[in-house]
Design brief:
It is built from 13 helices and two strands; from the N terminus they run H-H-H-H-H-H-E-E-H-H-H-H-H-H-H. It is mainly α and 299 residues long. It has one domain. A hairpin with a 2-residue loop joins strand 1 and strand 2. The radius of gyration is 18 Å and the shape is globular. The relative contact order is 0.24. The C terminus is likely disordered.
């Protein structure tokens, strides 16, 4: 099994765990505020990654790279998770998963403009098709002239995740960090920022049922610690960023299925149609592998 195949397996495992987070977060938001939930989740994630880093004696970040880790943690985890949690509280878990499913679109655009990966004609056609699908999905959050704030927050989360994907590839490919190091230090800095929500967590924790707290622990161990590590590892092994990001196409369908089985949610037909259009556009954009220009690549 070559590195590319291992990267695909790692990406698939990540997507399954991340998809499970949509109904899990929706479930926990009945008892926790968005800030308290993400702090609880990433305190667990930081503990798991911290133990591993100490045992494996993971290299500490170089001083000149500290701003990169701070920015990756702040934008790709802290801001992303807050927007994701807050946005999901306004919409169904299924709709949330379809909007977040547009992350490969944002990643592809940044890969083109930042990493100088070429998409070609089919790539641009795919981007346009995906935008059309995203518009269909987002339209379910519009009533008259009022836009559901949850949809806006989730679109912001898409932008943050796309930036994070590019930064993580830069840290592993261009700066030489291992996937566990790039992931762990980003998570540690993000968790430090989340400490502003300590008062909320202390206030809400005593009234949350045991089942909810167990789900929060699950969110911290699997969709957070393990998944972020697997994702970073996949990004460091794949030939192109978008090859890994493309696995996020599967997330909406897995999340919608789990949301139906767990929460009893049903998706509006236009959401399912929009999700299929987004995925079709991204598949079209990746029919031909983009060719990168190493001479102009940036981290």
């Amino acid at each position: 099994m070559n590195n590319q195949q291992k990267a695909y397996i790692s990406a698939f495992i990540t997507v399954v765990f991340w998809a499970s987070a949509f109904p899990a977060v929706k479930f926990c938001l009945e008892y926790y505020s968005p800030g308290a939930l993400m702090l609880f989740r990433f305190l667990i994630a930081s503990a798991v990654l911290g133990v591993y880093c100490a045992a494996a004696k993971v290299k500490r970040p170089d001083k000149q790279d500290m701003p990169r880790f701070v920015l990756a943690g702040a934008v790709g985890i802290f801001v992303y998770m807050w927007l994701f949690n807050a946005g999901t509280s306004y919409v169904t878990a299924g709709l949330s998963s379809f909007i977040i499913g547009a992350c490969p679109l944002g990643t592809l655009l940044l890969s083109i403009f930042v990493l100088k990966e070429r998409a070609g004609l089919l790539g641009w056609v795919g981007i346009i098709v995906s935008f059309a699908g995203l518009a269909l999905v987002a339209s379910t959050g519009i009533s008259g002239a009022t836009v559901n704030i949850g949809v806006v927050m989730l679109l912001g989360a898409v932008a943050c995740n796309s930036i994070y994907n590019i930064m993580q590839r830069g840290l592993t490919i261009n700066r030489g960090y291992t996937a566990i190091a790039a992931t762990s230090y980003s998570v540690f800095f993000a968790t430090a920022l989340m400490l502003v929500f300590v008062p909320q967590l202390l206030r809400e924790f005593p009234s949350a049922p045991l089942a909810v707290n167990l789900v929060c622990i699950y969110l911290g161990v699997f969709p957070a610690a393990i998944s972020y590590f697997c994702w970073g590892w996949a990004l460091s092994r794949a030939e192109k960023t978008i090859h890994v990001a493309s696995f996020l196409y599967l997330s909406p369908f897995i999340a919608a299925t789990l949301s139906f089985l767990w929460l009893g949610e049903r998706l509006e037909p236009i959401v399912a149609i929009g999700g299929v259009v987004i995925i079709a556009g991204m598949v079209l954009a990746n029919i031909r592998k983009p060719v990168s220009n190493p001479a102009t690549s940036q981290d």
